[in-house]
Amino acid sequence: MENTLDMTSNKPTVASRVMAYPLVRIVLGLVLTFAPVPLTMIIASKLVDKPHRIAWPQLLAAVLVWFGYRYYVRRIEKRQPAELATPGMARELGAGLLLGAALVAMTFAVLAALGVYRFDGVNAVGVMMLLPLAELLLVGMAEEMMFRGVIFGVTERSLGSKAAIVISAAVFSLGHLPNEGVSLLAMGALAAYGVLQAALYMKTRRLWVCIGSHVAWNYCVSEVFSSTVSGHAATDGLLRGELVGNAMLTGGAFGVEGSLITLLLITAAAAFWLRRALQSQQARISD
Known about the structure:
By secondary structure, the chain is mostly helical. It is 69% helix and 4% strand.
């Protein structure tokens, strides 16, 4: 009788059996991580007039996204969110910012050399150029926590690193399908960027460098080179310039992320960092 009772008490609950499915954990992770974004924006729009909704709703949403992801990791994954630990955060975030900015600069340098990007001067520098950082920080944090932290993380623990790279990059690319002007080249470049971000995450086992790279890419394309980002209308940034010529090189309505040049450069960067990530992973296994 005692053995029977022990076996009954150790029987997994319905909730634990449901949570054992990777897809269930992914869905819960995405909901808990992303839900603060629309909720914050809706509540802010109801309580505060538009002229007073500058930057702070996005920053508040970013903080809530951070808490939502940490809650998911602790309660659903039942582990410590080491990928978001604050020691070393500034250094890793800075490295990511430099990497993202360098990729954008290289892309536009090649496009300028090909006569596709035409530079026409420099706009006045003002504090208004910093305001988009609030929204871009929110986008970078939310997307990296969802695509790398949740989708890549759960898939890697279930199916291995290679499957996680392919699946997370594919989902990241497909997530941009509704954007204006999307093309096969754009989908390819986004998938390559997804591989790059996954490689950075594998190499560091941290999200900060991924967030920095993501923020820098979006900010530099829009606020430095005054160009379209993922189909979103271009703004007046630091440099006055425009992309002209063949849509295969300019990216068309989708922007520079739909350019063949972008695809080639990001693919090269992804291959470099993926090789380093796999080498580091092999070294950890050997140890």
